[in-house]
Amino acid sequence: MCIRDRSSGMQSVRLSNGTLLPQYGLGLSHNGGFNPDAVTASLDAGVRLFDTAARYRTEQPLAMALSQDKAVDRADLWITTKLWPGDAHDPGEALRRSLGELGMEYVDMYLVHWPGSWSGAESAEQAKSRRQRIWREMEKILESGRARSIGVSNFMPHHLQDLAESATVMPMVNQIEFNPFQQAKHVRAACHQLDIVCQGYSPLAKAHCLNHPAVCRIADSLGATAAQVLIRWSLQSGVPVIPKTTRPERVLENIGSLDIELNSAQMSVLDGLDSNMRVTWDPTQVP
Whole-prediction pTM value? Predict the structure, then answer.
């Protein structure tokens, strides 16, 4: 169920711990650079969710960009950052460094960035044990208050099941690649069973499919852009999104997705485009 956020006008999704995750945010990345103007344009347009990661090295630049806007209180922001596998031997220390980069006392969400190890091959049993150990540390972080919610990213059903066997608190969110061409139906079904919200990254499939005839026909019929149609499909599919861009004009274009509505026939067309295409990392082979 979506809930309207009074502070920004954006709708939010209630997580299993009761916190409200904005349905729309700005994704940041080390790929394509960083532009503080995109952050400013997002804030001006009412966006309050900003998604970064230690791996991206955009935590400090994000903090600097946010500090320029004195009108938005920290309490009204949603800041997500992530634990990189190379730092997973000590998640608490990794978060301490991230908080230092962000200049903040807490983040709204801390995610395990990747289900696999970055230090070589491991058996399924070793991988399971490692994930369970890391998750115990994530639960401690949640208890400490340094993260208001915790979750994972790129976790497949068997990775989630590993956590379910020993977790005291399950992930609130699983951030996955999601767009009409990569619908991850089995992952979404597993998350639904475990009361985990799926949040989608790469809703535009890194622009690979903006010229797809079906997408363009729908866009033309709505007087919208292909990017707006793709983002809107994710939202109407019940998946919050974090499209990435460094261009202020694209920020405004993408947010325009909140002002259009796809009818059932248009949703059905887009539902039929699933081809298991991936434009980012593939976690399906991680034991």
Answer: 0.95
Exactly one of 24, 56, 110, 201 is catalytic; which is it? 56
> Rounded to whole angstroms, how far apart are CA atoms 27 and 33?
12
β-strand 25-27 against 20-22: which pairing, if any? unpaired
Residues 210 and 57: their CA atoms lie apart, in Å, by 28
pLDDT tens per residue across span 12-63? 999 999 999 999 999 998 767 899 999 999 999 999 999 999 999 999 999 9
CB of 154 closer than 8 Å to CB of 178: no
Is 56 a known active-site residue? Answer: yes
Q: For residue 29, give the amino acid letter.
A: S
**Residue from 50, 80, 69 nearest 245 by CA:** 50
